[in-house]
Amino acid sequence: MSQTEQTKSPIARYGPLALIVIVAAVGAFALRDYLSFDALRDNREVLLAFRDENFILTVLLFIVAYILIVGFSLPGAAIATLTGGFLFGTALGTVVNVTGATLGATAIFLAARMGLGEKLKARMDASEGLVSKIKKGLDENQWSMLFFIRLVPAVPFFVANLIPAFLGVPLQRFMISTFLGIIPGSLVYTSVGAGLGTVFANGETPNLGIIFEPHILLPILGLCALSLMPVVIKAVTGKKDL
């Protein structure tokens, strides 16, 4: 552990992560009625009017809101993604959603690494036996594993932010893999959001389970398999990651 890390006070070290946990707990109860599909449906005309009058401001405010939702693990990330598609369409909405999600994920990553990540990494580096082998395997295949946990729909987004922090993944590598890795899933939900006008008109609710339908899930699983190809190739050839 570095001398700088040793001189950090407990508040400076654990404060950001503790704040995220507290806000997430409070938000789970206080905001669940506001960050919901019903709230989006009931306020859709106000949102569209504000967007039409203040387009750039709406984009910036939406990104900030998305960062806060993801950064503090508040309920409603899926609804936020739908809202991005509803307000900005599939193309721009995906860019806005992915940007906000990446920056919010980075906030969690930095808070976790500051609070626990450096300690855990140091312990894993100093460990022997099975733990050491697992750590070495992950280090040698970081890009593949980072893309894999982002692409697999079953891995919770919050967990995918914590694991890299605890394993000492470089910040730049985390941000790049997050931004690119969440594009497929974000594109699916953003496109659903772009069609909410018809859903609202018919009095229906969006199908948030669409990502698990075969025509969506199979291509994503194909990308998952592709992300693991370097691991397979290295296992066969014995070459290490560059």
Layout: helices, strands, pairs:
Blueprint: H1 3-7, H2 10-30, H3 37-42, H4 44-53, H5 55-71, H6 77-126, H7 130-140, H8 142-151, H9 157-166, H10 171-181, H11 183-194, H12 196-201, H13 214-227, H14 229-237
In short:
With 242 residues, the protein is an all-alpha fold. The chain is 79% helix and 0% strand. It has helices at residues 3-7, 10-30, 37-42, 44-53, 55-71, 77-126, 130-140, 142-151, 157-166, 171-181, 183-194, 196-201, 214-227, 229-237.
Written overview of the protein:
This protein is mainly α. It has one domain (3-237). 79% of the residues lie in helices and 0% in strands. It has helices at 3-7, 10-30, 37-42, 44-53, 55-71, 77-126, 130-140, 142-151, 157-166, 171-181, 183-194, 196-201, 214-227, 229-237. α2 runs antiparallel to α6, α4 crosses α5 and α5 (55-71) crosses α6 (77-126). The model is unreliable at 1-5 (pLDDT under 50).
What share of residues are in beta strands? Answer: under 5%
What's the number of extended β-strand segments?
0
- The chain-level mean pLDDT equals 81
Q: Sheet bearing the most strands, described? A: none
Helix content: over 70%
Instruction: Give me the number of helical elements.
Output: 14
Distance between the termini: 26 Å
- Series of H and E elements: HHHHHHHHHHHHHH
Structure class: mainly alpha
Task: Using the CA coordinates, give the radius of gyration.
Answer: 20 Å
What is the number of domains? 1
Looking at the structure, what is the overall shape? globular
Low-pLDDT segments, ≥5 res: 1-5
